[in-house]
Amino acid sequence: MSGTESPVLAVLCGDKHPPDMEPIEQMAAVRYTDADGLADALRDADALFVYDFLSSAVPDAWHAANRLRWLHIASAGVDPVMFPGLRDSDVVLTNSRGVFDNSIAEYVLGQILAFAKDFARSVKLQSERTWLHRESERIQDRSAVVIGTGPIGRAIARLLRAAGMSVAGAGRTPREGDADFGTVHASGNLGEWIGEYDYVVAVAPLTEQTKGMFDTRAFDAMKDDARFINVGRGELVVTGDLVAALGSGHIAGAALDVFDIEPLPAESPLWTMDNVHVSPHMSGDFVGWRNALVGVFADNFRRWHAGRPLVNIVDKQLGYVPSSG
């Protein structure tokens, strides 16, 4: 930006203000708001920080964004703000790519170990004071395919490979010799190769091409003893098809951190399936993650304020920050 007048920054945050905002407040006129007040906050605002990244309020308030030049969302996924009004505008969109890479990778490794070592059953047996010796699986030399080759997918691949697993990837462009994945399959043809892997990890961004990509055909193509892990978006999965595949034993299990409806409804059969691990959209949320998200925004704000190039600019036609994957 240019000029001497302080910019106006709208912050969509609900009733929980983001931490560590004092330096930004010294550089801009900051308007904190919830969904109901967003339209008023957007009038004559130069930038919008969507701290409440699960909110769906931006499209309905967009008519008031008469001066907006930049929108930053406090998440890696941008689907809550990816609507035609923003896509067709000149507003620059940035995200918080990089904050959750390692913590989500640790979650995925943890879930794989939980399946292999039967931890859930051990906890249940302990609560029953039952001593039942079993044999467990090794993860060394087991195979995984990570669908989504951005920074989170690459962090997952590196950690699983360090644990002794064989790892491949899937993205828009198939190739060999990738530094983190070795083989990268074409994600549009997953039925042709998904059956080769013991673990299928979904971390792809939500786009028109990926929505519902895990359906009956995908689950039918998987190994009967394969496990499915979703740390991407709930809408990547046709939930009814997944429930059917799990219930029939066609796939061995699933670890699910994201769902097409959140919170997961109490009546969902996923809650009570013995071969399902449910967590409440927390795979990336390490202690201090809110401060880290504000740190990413603050760095970009200083760049924007000084007229320097922004980082993590989203290609609004693709729906994510372009990378080699």
From TrEMBL:
Segments forming a coiled coil: none
Record's keyword annotation contains Oxidoreductase: yes
Domain of life: Bacteria
InterPro entries: D-isomer_2_OHA_DH_cat_dom, D-isomer_DH_CS, D-isomer_DH_NAD-bd, NAD(P)-bd_dom_sf
UniProt-listed CDD domains: 2-Hacid_dh_1
Keyword entries, A-Z: NAD, Oxidoreductase
MF (Gene Ontology): NAD binding; oxidoreductase activity, acting on the CH-OH group of donors, NAD or NADP as acceptor
D-isomer specific 2-hydroxyacid dehydrogenase catalytic domain boundaries: 17-284
PROSITE patterns in the record: D_2_HYDROXYACID_DH_3
Residues in D-isomer specific 2-hydroxyacid dehydrogenase NAD-binding domain copies: 110-283
Pfam families to which the protein is assigned, alphabetical: 2-Hacid_dh, 2-Hacid_dh_C
SUPFAM superfamilies (UniProt xref): Formate/glycerate dehydrogenase catalytic domain-like, NAD(P)-binding Rossmann-fold domains
Keyword Nucleotide-binding annotated: no
Listed PANTHER family: 2-HACID_DH_C DOMAIN-CONTAINING PROTEIN (PTHR43333), D-ISOMER SPECIFIC 2-HYDROXYACID DEHYDROGENASE NAD-BINDING DOMAIN-CONTAINING PROTEIN (PTHR43333:SF1)
Family: Belongs to the D-isomer specific 2-hydroxyacid dehydrogenase family.
Protein name: D-2-hydroxyacid dehydrogenase
